[in-house]
Amino acid sequence: MELPSLSASLPKSLTEPDGSAVIRVLSYNVRSLRDDEEALVRVIRACEPDLVFVQEAPLFFRWRKHAARLASKCDLVVLSGGGSAAGPLLLCSLRAFVERTEDVLLPLTPGLHRRGFATAVVRFGTAVRVGVVSAHLSLDAGERAAQAEMLLERVRSLDTPYAIAAGDVNETPDGPAFRRLASAMQDGWAVAPWGGEHTFSRSGAARRIDAVFASPGVEVLACGVPLHLPGITQPDLEAATDHLPVLAALRLRPS
């Protein structure tokens, strides 16, 4: 499903007269920056995000330097995560005022990859506070379901008027972990589809396994893969990484 007629109408980031904040949120699995980093940068910059929820950030040798380089190239700053969160990373624009951050490592299942969450509480303007979590759930179905519950608990623990969780769910919307997340939060694509739907097609049929979720009260204006956004090209999307990004425009009103 594609809605190219809406591609040019994605709302820009702004602060409205009543103090509401319209923000752009991007979720992107960058495959440890193993592909064309310049193509990746061009895609991120074209999306003009306020928050970037990264999965598979570099984990090992000089991982902080790699994260800082990516942020700098995109005119963003590192918010939290990376190697200390087992891969999830948060970047933000200078529009976001940072209240606190925390990197969370999840219980390790022998034989499986370590997983974690990058979390933060940020403020836009003076009256809009939002908790954010970048996540990359397990390839194992049982562990993935448990991690979905941990993600929702982490969102609740941030104790903010609004929350956004985004990342690589590693299953489609009909899976139990994805359904659990969508039962407690708004699935951006399901609420306000825009652009493209499917985020991964390198193995098997194209499917949607990456998502932006928003707590009740957040107004989802548009959400989807920015296939036709000005400045984004198909060659760059294909060269940047093996996933496609998910871009959402959200409105958060003063609480």
From TrEMBL:
Matches recorded under Pfam families: Exo_endo_phos
Tree of life domain: Bacteria
Gene3D superfamilies linked: Endonuclease/exonuclease/phosphatase
Span of domain Endonuclease/exonuclease/phosphatase: 26-243
Name recorded for this polypeptide: Endonuclease/exonuclease/phosphatase domain-containing protein
Organism name: Streptomyces cirratus
